[in-house]
Amino acid sequence: MDSILQVRQVSKTYGSRQVLHNVSFELGPGKIAGLLGSNGSGKSTMMKLIAGLAQPSAGSISVLDTPVGEESKLLVSFMPDRPLTEKWMKVGDALKFMRDFYPDFDPEKARRMLDFMTLSEKSKISSLSKGMNERLQLTLALSRRARLYMLDEPIGGVDPVARTKILNALMEFYEEDSTILISTHLVSDIERIFDEVIFIKEGEIILHSDVEELRLQRGKSIDELFREVYAEC
Amino acid sequence: MTIEFDNNQPIYLQIMNYLKGEIITGKLKPGDKIPSVRELAAELQINPNTVQRTFQELEREEIVETRRGMGRYVTGREETIMKIKREMAQDILERFVRGMQELGFQSEEIVKAVADNIAAKESRGM
Asked: What range(s) does the ABC transporter domain occupy (chain A) (predicted)?
């Protein structure tokens, strides 16, 4: 099967600090993958490199055989851990903004998602709660017709009700031939939607496996394995 | 449809067992259409690929049949349904007998405990 994302021997250093060390992995089409690691493990850096927001110090990354750069940004929809929207905007303005920037933005899908999320186009973004803002950011990211979606901590800091809503929306609106990479350290809430997981620790990949195989072989939940691996951190 | 998932076990096996249970107890009848991958995934809030895997396994065991362009249906073959019924009964029995043995019951005592339990239920009209 052709891979959607290829990461080859990527390292990243900030000054003298090495954040990623010789990381390689691939993701196939139609997969939902979890990039799991504790705070400071290198998850967010990895996400930024794939999104083309920073350059690797060594190695290469490509999306559908397109090296990460201006061209690959049309294939990748990135939901950063900090919102892209501006304070003065209303929800409707954010939609227009996305449509101007991205030719693959689907306003029709965005409206269906807003309905599902019980968000109104007239609401001011500055008045949204944290959970509502996460719902909006997810709507913006998933309403592009991209091949690779990257969600950085999509359920971080929101209450359990909002979490459920966000996960439901993800299942409801994701395109089956696209690939989603989700970084998170909140494993138990989200592990049921993963096909595969990548454990990253101190800038290195220590495990990349199908989740059902892991459960079968170890008789444990992904959350439990995660806790074991990161216990000493 | 609700399933209390145990994240320690493969999810696709849990959905399989759930659907087998529905078939054996007659909640899903021979020839009934089963939900699509997409519908079931949305309902259970899990990954569609996991549901796909469940259906593949059920097809392999010939419990579910795919009719081209029509969807998936519970098999109409009684013997297949009887077979999974026997398999599930066997599982329950194995677990019960092992549990009783671990508690220190001898074979005759286990048989007697079962007979007494059934007799007591019948006398209460259950």
From this structure: 5-227
